[in-house]
Structures are given as C-alpha cells and as structure tokens.
Automatic annotation (TrEMBL):
Region ranges (Disordered): 1-62
Leader sequence residues: none
Residue intervals of the OmpR/PhoB-type domain: 51-151
Gene for this chain: afsR_2
UniProt xrefs under InterPro entries: AfsR-DnrI-RedD_regulator, BTAD, NB-ARC, OmpR/PhoB-type_DNA-bd, P-loop_NTPase, Sig_transdc_resp-reg_C-effctor, TPR-like_helical_dom_sf, TPR_rpt
Xref: PROSITE patterns: OMPR_PHOB (PS51755)
Record keywords, A-Z: DNA-binding, Transcription, Transcription regulation, Two-component regulatory system
Membership in a protein family: Belongs to the AfsR/DnrI/RedD regulatory family.
PANTHER family with a match to the protein in the record: TRANSCRIPTIONAL REGULATOR REDD, TRANSCRIPTIONAL REGULATOR REDD-RELATED
Protein name (record): Transcriptional regulator AfsR
Transmembrane intervals: none
Length: 1022
C-alpha cells in the first residue's frame, strides 16, 4: 500500500537495553500520565480503548490492541495487563507482523539486539506465557518454534489506520476530497502520542521511526487536502508549527507558502521561500527543490489558478431521450446533478430488484416535474417496454380519479376497451398483471396524496414509479422520498443565462445575481423573470432587478403569460383549513430566516403540541419547510405571499401587531433567562422592560448558550423588526440581554448594524432612555471591532442620555467600556479613572459581576503601567467574585486578565495555566473572538518562556480565529508572530509580518507603529 509502512521481515539492527532489564522493570507501572502541554487540553485518548470503525466491528469480547501510542490491550472496555517493557516489546513485534509467525531468535534480536541476556530464550517464553494468560490462548498461539498473534479484522489500531488511509486514497482518486480528508483525520485520530511509546529494543526503534514518518506523511496529505477544499486559513497554524519542528521538510514549506498565498498573505509566502532557500544553503549546501521554486514563480506572477482551491470535475449530465408518453424535457435543464444521480441510481436498480418507487416533494414552482421528466428520459434504457405519464392534478380542486387513469394506462399498454373492467380494484389488478414481466417506468406527476397513487403503482420486479407531489408521501410504504429544495445560486444563474443569453448576463453579472436572488432561486420564478427579460430587448438586467427589488410588488412582477408564481402558491393556500391558513399568514410576518417551534407557539398564542401539528401540516402541504427538528422556514417568495395573505385576509389587522409583539416578548424573556443563568448576581435583568410571555427556562448552562446562538439570526431580526413604537424599548433591552452575540465573531457585524438601527430609531422619536441603552450596546460592538474613537464617543453619549433618564446601569457599563478603550489607546491615567468610576457605580447598583469585570480591566491598566503586583492582586479579586457567584464564562475573563498579569510578572508557567483554563471555557461557550484573543496571549506567554515554536502556532490560531479589537489587535498578533518566527530563524517571514503590522498601525494611527519600526530597522540596515 503506497505511503503506508509495512513491518519488514528482516531483523532489526542490533542495539538497545542491557541484559537483565526484563526483570528489573517487571512491576513498573506502564501508563504514567504525561503532564499536558501548557495552554492545551489533555489527550482525548488517555486510558481509553482505540476507536472502533464500522467496516470491521470487532466481536463483543474480542481483544483489541494499540501500537500508535503506548502498547496496550483491551477486552471490551477493560484494559488488560501487558507487563514489563520487554514483554510489551514482544507483544509489539508480534502485532506488527500481521499475523505471521515470529521465531524465538527473531524476537530475541528484536528485543535485545546483538547482546541478549544469557537467559533470553527463557525470558521470551516467560513473556509469551504471561501474555497468553492475559490475552487468550487463541489470540497468542505457538507454532513452528515461534509465536503469532491471531486477532480479527479491526482489532489493531494500525491496521484500522492503514485501511482508512487506503480508503482515503480511493476517495481522493475519485474526486471526493472531503471524504478523503475525513478518513485521514480519523486515521490520524488513532495516534495517542509517540508510537510504541517506551517500548525498548532495536525492532521497536525502527518501527517507531517508520510510524512517525508515516504519521507525518498522512499529516501532509491531509493538509494538502485542506488546501484543495479551501481550508487554507485554518491550515496555517498547524503548518507553522510543523515547519518549525521539521525545518528541512520542503513539502511542508510548499504547503505553507500556498496556504499563506491563498489567505492573501503573499509577502509572507515569498518570505517562507527566502527563509527556506537560506536554510537549505546553510545546512545542506543545496537549492530548494524545483517544485518549491516553481511555486515561488507562480506566486510572483500572481497566478490566478494558484489562488483557487481544486474543485471536483463536473459530472456529465445524462443524455436526453424521448420515450412515448413522457412530456418533452426542457432544453435548458440546469443543475440538480445530485438528485439526477440519486433518482437515476434508484430507477436503474429496478432491473434486478422489486419495484422501485421514488416520490419527489416540494413547493409549487421548485421544479419537481422538470426534474422527474428529465430523470425519466435519462432512465429510458432501463425501461425498454415503455414509459407511462399522467398529470394527476393533485394541487387543483378536481384531482384525477385513479380508475380513469388506469383505463388510460391499460389502453396505452395495448388492452382493448372491451377488456377493461369497470371497478377500480379490477382495473388495478389487470394493470399489474399486464405489467408482469415488463420493464416499464410510470411517471405520476402532481399527485394529491398517497391514496390517489397506490392503485397506479406497478407491482412487479423490473418496473418503477416516479411520483411528484406538493405533499410528502410519508405514508407510502417502501417509497424513496426526496425533498426538492430551490436551486443553488450558481445553478440559478446558469438557468437565467440559458434563457436570457450569455451576452446580456455577462455584462451585468451582479444585477443578474440580484434577479435570481429576488426570485428566491425558485426555478419557476427564474423562468418567468428570464422570459420577461428575453421578450423585452430594450430592458437591461438592471431594469428587471430594480423591478424585483420592491418586495410588495415582487409577486406581481413574477408573471408572464399563463405562468405566475402567485397563482402557483394560491392553489396550495386555497386547500388549507382555517387554523392552518391563520398559522400560515401569521408566521410569515416574522423576519427571521426560520422559526423555532417554541417561538411559533408564541406568535400563534397556541400550546406547543397544537402548534407543532399545524406546522407539520403546512410542511406536508409544501407551504413550509422543516429546516431541522423543531425549526421551520418559508421560501422567500412563499413568505411574501403569506404576508400578502395576512394583509388581505386577517380580519383584525391589530392581530398582526400582537403576533409580532408576542414573539418579541418570547425572545426578551428567554434571553433574560439566559443572561441570568450566565451571570448570577448581575442586576441588569432587574432593569429590563417587562415581557408578557414567560419564555423558556433553562437549568443547564450549555442548553442556554446553545439556544442563544441557534436563535441569534432570528433574535436579531426580531429586534430590527421591533425598532418602532411601543416595542422599541423592549427591542433595545433584548439586544442588551443578548450582548454575548457581539463578542462571538459569527454574529458581531449583525449585532452592530442592529445596534445602529436601534440608536437611530430611539433618537428619531426622542426616547432618551432607549437611546442611552442602544448606545451602550453599540459601544460594545464598536469596541469588539477595534474602532475605539467611535466606541468612546458612543459610550460618552450613552452616559449623558442614561443620566438624563435616571438610568444608572448603562452609566456603570459605559465607564467600564471607556476604561477598556483608554487601555487600548495607551491613555492609562484616563483608563484608571474611568474604571474606578465603574467600580463605584457597579457597587452602587449592587452588580457584583460588573464590579469584577471592572477590577479585571483595571488589572490590565496596571499591567500597562508596570504595576505588576497590584495587577495580579486586582485580577485575583475579580476572580474571587466570579468564583463566589459561580460565573463560568465570566470567570474565564478573570483568568484571562490574571494570565496577562502573570506573563508581565515573568511567571509564564502560571500564566499559561490561567490562559489555558480560559481558552477551554471560551471554546465551550463559542466565544470565537475571545478564543482568538486568548491564543494571542498564550503566544506572548510562550515567548516569555522562550518557546518560539509554540508561540508561533498560537499566534497563527489567533489570526485564523480573529480577536477582540479588530485590525489593531491583528497588528499586535502579527508583531508577536514576527518575534516568534525571528527566534526560529525565519527572518524573511518575520519581516513580512512586521511590515503588515506596521501598515495596520499607520492606517489606524496606533502608537505601536514605533515599536515595529524599531524591529524592522536593524533588518533593513542588515
């Protein structure tokens, strides 16, 4: 197997332990835990059996072994004793022979080399006897004067890793890079430290080196795949660490150059080449290999192909065929390749299996019939005896009767009228008999429900039925169900281009994307829009885009001839019961991308179970989509139609406002509950506007955090939608209660734009209290993004408005924020004054968590002023308050501050302990920006501890994750990364980092620019 080490038959070279070691270490404990690396979690494999994989699941009581780490054995989940180091060496030698027999002399040479002890043969027999008792006589067998391990497939971690690697090679060769990457990651996950750890002997030493080399090869392959699938930014941190550990391995340098270039860091990529060339010349007296030089030239030339990840080759579209009863396939059929393959494979299987039934469901206009007809034409070779088609008109008021359809089918199959029975059951029986022995495809289009189509299904091997319907055929036994969604943006643009013409679209590509986006990527809507444009040669694509931009007119614009999107939706809406229609109308009012079951129950003012029944009935009618268990969403155009129905059909217009108010109350009450659970003792929840809905309650902190981030988009959309009238103050308080979203990274920009909208709305109506609070939320968002001047101004105005409104809580938080801003701007005296005010205000409000936050921030001010002892003391005071209140996430902020103070105090080991604990909490709470910022501080601590390789790795992780403080903090991280790289001898790349940092500092006017100029000056002079 290419790239996978196999254990050689020849004996290992002689070297190793001295005679007598076998008895001297007989009773030593074998698995002493190593201390975890500073700032990193412990190995997840410690004291656990190796992973099992489905391709070879071992028997329940089978013995399993690991060699990709300490040599260990388990039966079930229980560890088995493997004895002394020499006994483990014997076991390892047998495991690595793939079940082949090893003679006693081979084992002696492998364990002791050329100078075995005088009783080596007796020792081997003793070790084998002990292992046989521990394992099983059937596992370790004696034969031909030697020994062998007889274990089943999947019982040795190395064998599993080899098979995973082989499968990965096959997937990569077939173009499935994502699956190949997953399989290699699984293989690498089987390693638990150094292979054959602490196993003595020359044989083990040889195999250990080979296994380590293979592990590195696998890592290179996986990193190569990372780059092929576009994960270049994520790969840089690991590549930086690996190139530091293996400085002469040119393939790693090549991958690092490519990852940096694709991440927009061209100067660093070229610097890696310069550093490599210098290192190879100094160490080996050679030039870089041709591949590395060629890559440098392509980077210098800004090769466009180099910047793009490898993409799998497009699959060939199935050929269009023309069977008898099928409607003609559309000449511009576009995309849907995965569904075409899935349905095609299913129909092809009907040749040798029982009847295949596939049911395609989806909203009106999504292209169900187009897809089914296209697939049916492509499947014609598998059904040489004919293809039948009928439009069952299930969406209309007069659906086709099954007995009428059967009569038509029987005539098409050659049955004379006089032989066609009268009753449904008799016709169905004759139909099935007529199809017996034939291979026929039956396309049942636009079905109403399962009861309508059951009599129309063939019943024999070789035939198949393909069904389309707006309703999901969950009660159709044995059917292969497919839910057809809208097109991807690329497919939608291709369809639009095919109808309109390449020339018109190419000149206005952005406008064309706007058009298909306004169509919600719904094929029917795209066809209508494209047909209107194709018929009007004087229109530009931009004219059409402008017409569709008006949501209130969009459905009216999407009609051409007898095609109309609104009419398609009207068919489904007209069949709803009154309660279903009300739910359809009211749920469409909410602006979020989807809605949870609990939120929907609040909108409808209905019990949870009744709401679920209503929503599921709308899903079955294809007017609503089930986004995930307990979550529902509208197609964009269906939502517009639902809102139009609400305006037209809701008898009491005020009910629309009440529905949205109930939704706002639900989010406010629940977000306040999450805030209170995260921050026991914080008085903010006592100062929020009251909500008239109980919301959700949580007992588990992780469930509460999960809710906040799952609901983030919907919650922020609700805030924006509520920024008016009587709901404005509740909207502001909801945003404040959800302030963790500002620091998450994933939701920071949305949070900021929402805060701006609230500030402007409050200012427009003169609501001083709401404006003060809105400015407080905006301060947080601006601070996170590193716009310190704007953040300070918002905090100043927040203080003024809050004091005018007699609202003390925003005053305290504004002072706290201004203290942090002053820290970042090197205004330390101002910062100390603001933070002392914050401490006093928080104490006056009775907010102990706020007090702890201000203490930790004041600690950082003292660090900056070289008052290290008081900095440590202040951070510890904050931690003590957090600890007393049981604040897990906020305690991480305290440990973060203490870690900074300890680093400044020259106590990096203690700092790394604190920062490592903080990092785990931030990761657990999905605070990505705080996670990145903590990696930066860990990098600084490693520099103090003179560990530049670890510092560079953590700095790269900080760059990949981003940090609190925006571009200014990125400059800080690049400065630290440059210091680490310089200490590693990578001066060229260090210079590139410092130049980028200097550019950032000069653009932002940061004082740190002088420090970086000093770093660059000696390099420039040299």
């Amino acid at each position: 197997m290419d790239g996978v080490p196999r254990v050689p038959e020849q004996r290992a070279p002689a070297s190793g332990p001295q005679p007598g070691e076998g008895t001297r270490h007989e009773n030593q404990h074998e698995n002493q835990d190593r201390p975890p690396q500073q700032g990193r979690p412990r190995s997840r494999h410690q004291d656990r059996p190796p992973q099992q994989f489905p391709q070879h699941p071992p028997q329940r009581d089978a013995v399993r072994f690991s060699v990709l780490g300490p040599v260990r054995a388990w039966r079930g989940g229980e560890p088995l004793s493997t004895g002394s180091p020499q006994q483990r060496a014997l076991l390892a030698a047998l495991l690595l022979r793939d079940g082949r027999t090893a003679t006693a002399s081979e084992l002696i040479d492998g364990i002791w080399g050329e100078e075995p002890p005088s009783q080596a043969l007796a020792a081997v027999r003793t070790y084998a006897s002990r292992l046989r008792k521990a394992l099983d006589p059937e596992v370790l067998v004696s034969e031909s004067g030697g020994y062998a391990i007889r274990a089943g497939a999947g019982t040795l971690d190395l064998a599993v890793a080899q098979e995973l690697a082989a499968d990965a090679e096959k997937c990569r060769a077939s173009g499935d890079r994502c699956q190949a990457r997953t399989l290699i990651n699984k293989a690498l996950g089987l390693w638990d430290g150094e292979p054959l750890a602490s196993v003595p002997g020359p044989y083990a030493e040889t195999q250990r080196a080979r296994l380590e080399e293979w592990r590195l090869q696998l890592t290179e392959t996986r990193l190569d795949l990372d780059l092929e699938v576009g994960c270049h930014a994520e790969a840089i941190s690991e590549l930086t660490a690996l190139t530091a550990a293996h400085p002469l391995r040119e393939r790693l340098r090549e991958l690092l150059m490519l990852a940096l270039y694709r991440s927009g860091r061209q100067a660093e990529a070229l610097a890696v080449y310069a550093d490599t060339r210098r290192l190879l010349a100094d160490e080996l007296g050679v030039d870089p290999r041709p591949e590395l030089s060629h890559l440098q030239q392509r980077i210098l030339a800004a090769d466009a192909d180099l910047a793009r990840p490898v993409e799998p080759p497009p699959s060939a579209a199935p050929a269009v065929v023309h069977p008898a009863q099928l409607p003609a396939t559309v000449p511009d059929f576009t995309g849907r390749l995965s569904f075409v393959r899935e349905l095609g494979d299913r129909l092809a299987a009907a040749e040798s299996s029982v009847m295949a039934v596939s049911a395609v469901a989806g909203i009106g206009g999504v292209g169900k019939t187009t897809l089914a007809v296209h697939v049916a034409h492509a499947a014609r070779p598998h059904f040489p005896d004919g293809q039948l088609y009928v439009d069952l008109q299930g969406a209309g008021s007069r659906a086709a009767e099954p007995e009428t359809v059967l009569g038509a089918f029987l005539r098409a199959l050659g049955t004379p009228d006089t032989a066609i029975p009268d009753t449904l059951d008799e016709r169905a029986a004759l139909y099935r008999s007529t199809l017996d022995g034939r291979r026929v495809l039956v396309l049942l289009d636009n079905a109403r429900d399962a009861s309508q189509i059951r009599p129309l299904l063939p019943g024999t091997t070789g035939s198949a039925a393909l069904v389309t319907s707006r309703a999901r055929m969950v009660d159709l036994a044995g059917a292969h169900l497919i839910d057809l969604d809208v097109m991807s943006p690329e497919e939608a643009l291709q369809l639009f281009t095919k109808i309109v013409g390449e020339e018109r679209v190419a000149s206005e590509r952005e406008a064309a994307l706007d058009v298909v986006g306004a169509c919600g990527f719904l094929p029917l809507a795209i066809r209508i829009a494209a047909a209107r444009l194709a018929a009007r040669r004087t229109w530009t694509v931009s004219v059409l885009a402008a017409k569709l931009a008006d949501e209130r007119r969009r459905l009216d614009e999407l009609q051409a001839g007898d095609l109309a999107v609104k009419a398609t939706f009207e068919l489904g809406y007209g069949q709803l019961e009154p309660q279903q229609a009300r739910a359809f109308r009211l749920l469409g009012l909410a602006d979020g991308p989807d809605i949870s079951l609990a939120a929907a129950a609040a909108v409808l003012d209905q019990p949870l179970q009744d709401t679920e029944d209503l929503l599921e009935s709308l899903v079955d009618a294809s007017l609503l989509e089930s986004a995930a268990p307990g979550r529902y969403r509208y197609h964009d155009l269906v939502r517009l139609y639902a809102r139009a129905c609400a305006e037209r059909d809701e008898q009491r217009p005020a009910e629309r406002e009440r529905a949205l108010s109930r939704l706002l109350d639900f989010y406010l009450a629940t977000a306040a509950a999450v805030y209170a659970l995260e921050r026991p003792g914080d008085r903010l929840v006592d100062h929020l506007e009251p909500a008239h809905h109980p919301g959700l309650r949580f007992t588990d902190r992780h469930a509460a955090v999960d809710w906040l981030y799952v609901e983030a988009d919907c919650l922020l959309a609700c805030v924006r939608q509520s920024a008016t009238g009587d709901t404005l103050r509740r909207a502001v308080d909801l945003l404040w209660a959800a302030k963790d979203l500002a620091e998450s990274g994933a939701n920071s920009h949305q949070y900021e734009t929402t805060a701006v909208a609230l500030r402007d709305a409050a200012r427009a109506v003169g609501d001083t209290r709401a404006e003060g609070r809105a400015r407080t939320t905006l301060t947080t968002a601006l601070l996170v993004s590193g716009r310190f001047d704007a953040a300070d101004e918002e905090a100043r105005l927040a203080t003024i408005h809050a004091r005018a409104a007699g609202d003390p809580v925003p005053v305290a938080w504004a002072s706290n924020d201004r203290g942090i801003i002053a820290l970042y701007q090197n205004r330390h005296a101002d910062g100390e004054r603001y933070l002392q005010d914050a401490i006093d205000n928080f104490r006056a409000c009775g907010s102990r968590p706020g007090e702890a936050s201000a203490l930790c921030n004041l600690s950082r001010i003292h660090v900056a002023m070289d008052r290290t002892s008081s900095a440590v003391e202040l951070a510890q005071q904050g931690i003590d308050i957090y600890d007393e209140l049981g604040l897990t996430l906020r305690l991480a902020n305290g440990r973060f501050a203490l870690g900074i103070a300890l680093t400044q105090a020259g106590r990096p080991a203690e700092a790394l302990d604190q920062l490592g604990e903080a990092l785990l909490v931030f990761q657990d709470n999905r605070q990505r920006l705080w996670e990145g910022t903590t990696h930066f501080r860990i990098a600084q601590a490693h520099l103090v501890a003179r560990r530049p390789a670890q510092a560079a790795q953590h700095a790269e992780q900080a760059l990949a994750l981003h940090c609190i403080g925006g571009d200014w903090m990125r400059g800080n991280v690049l400065t630290t990364l440059g210091r680490a790289l310089d200490q590693l001898g990578q001066a060229g790349r260090a210079r590139a980092c410092w130049r980028e940092a200097l550019s950032i500092y000069e653009q932002t006017g940061a004082a740190e620019a002088d420090e970086v100029r000093d770093l660059l000056t000696p390099l420039a002079a040299a």
